[in-house]
Amino acid sequence: MLDDNTRQRIQDEIDSTDVVLFMKGTPVFPQCGFSAAVVGVLSHVGVKFKSINVLEDPAVREGIKEFSNWPTIPQLYVKNEFVGGCDIIREMYETGELLEMLNTKGIDVQIGEEA
Amino acid sequence: MAMEAGEIERLIKETFPDAEVTIEDLRGDGDHYACHVLSSAFEGKTRIQQHQMVYAALQGRMGTELHALALQTGTPS
What we know:
Chain A: Residues 19-83 form the Glutaredoxin domain. The structure holds two protein chains of two kinds. Chain A is α+β, with helices and mostly antiparallel strands. Chain A has helices spanning 4-16, 33-45, 58-68, 86-95, 97-104; strands spanning 19-23, 50-53, 75-78, 81-84. In chain A, helix 2 (33-45) links the parallel strand 1 (19-23) and strand 2 (50-53). By secondary structure, chain B is α+β, with helices and mostly antiparallel strands. The interface between A and B is medium-sized, with 16 and 14 residues.
């Protein structure tokens, strides 16, 4: 169930930071392979992101699924837009779409477009 | 909790009768699958929409019984 308070907290997070990753665990200590994979891609691309550990907050853990109509975690938001979960991020990275999207949205990345 | 590969395929084909479904049991433990779905129903949809359509076909099992399902979708070439 997604209550108004939780919805507002999620909304505030994605409003206040350009790149937000809802994940299980932390970037240093991910507690799920899918979360680890997305952290790996974001780190490789060299984009700064804020991570939110849903394991520390049961309301967000369940609420985020309803918020985005997406049944799994991790979930990546860029400039207020839900980009996808692990499979989509991985696929977008492999096809170059991820860098293109980040560039289009004006997000700083640390590696060139040839990557 | 786990789910049979055949059951995943059945649910997907029930919603997308034309779908070409490939399921790989990644670890042989009946709990970690990679699933590739090609269907004309995905034409004109974004990736997120395509995945959401498959999740809908799985009737709420994604994220519960199915934690480890790597999904790829596309249209038949």
